[in-house]
Amino acid sequence: MKKSINTFIAMGLTVLFVACGPNEETIKREMKLKMENKLALQDSIKANKDLKLKYEQALSNAKGELEVAQDKLSRIKEWEFGRTPSEREDQIKQQTLVIDGIEKYIMDIQNGIPNIERKIVNFEIQLQIIETEINK
């Protein structure tokens, strides 16, 4: 019996709250939250655009390093006075490892850029939604 009375009171309060609608304080609180979300999204967009720029710069630098490493490999493959064939092969293997590492780094960067771009697009969509809600 007591449980049904509590349920009835809870339902009554819910109906009363819904019927009256949100008060001015609730509306202000919701608007403040929306503005905070908007600022957070703008910060996230800026941070990810900065990160994308850093990735693009790192990619450019890595491509330059790769070109230098490949040129060095070409020079290693050339005949050199006083170098034994085994020294030459060791140098080729070492330089090939360097090149492989740079190529892997380039691939990681190239794969990371689209992920950052997707994040930026998602944040921009969320920002548009928030701005639409704010301007209602």
Overall shape: rod-shaped
Instruction: Give the amount of beta strand, in percent.
Output: under 5%
Distance between the first and last residues' Cα: 46 Å
- As a percent range, the share of helical residues equals over 70%
The residue ranges in which pLDDT falls below 50 over 5 or more consecutive positions are none
Mean pLDDT, rounded to whole units? Answer: 89
Structural class: mainly alpha
Major β-sheet, in short? none
Radius of gyration: 31 Å
Tally the beta strands: 0
Task: Provide a compact summary of the structure.
By secondary structure, this protein is mainly α. It has 3 helices and no strands. It is 90% helix and 0% strand.
Question: What would your notes on this structure say?
Answer:
The chain has 136 residues and is mostly helical. The chain is built from three helices and no strands. It has helices spanning 2-20, 24-77, 85-134. Helix 2 packs antiparallel against helix 3. The longest helix is centred in the middle third of the chain and has 54 residues, at 24-77. It is rod-shaped. The model has no long low-confidence stretch (mean pLDDT 89).
Keywords:
136 residues, mainly alpha, 3 helices, rod-shaped
Q: Layout of helices and strands, plus pairs?
A:
Blueprint (H helix, E strand, L loop, with lengths): L1 H19 L3 H54 L7 H50 L2
Helix pairs in contact: 2-3
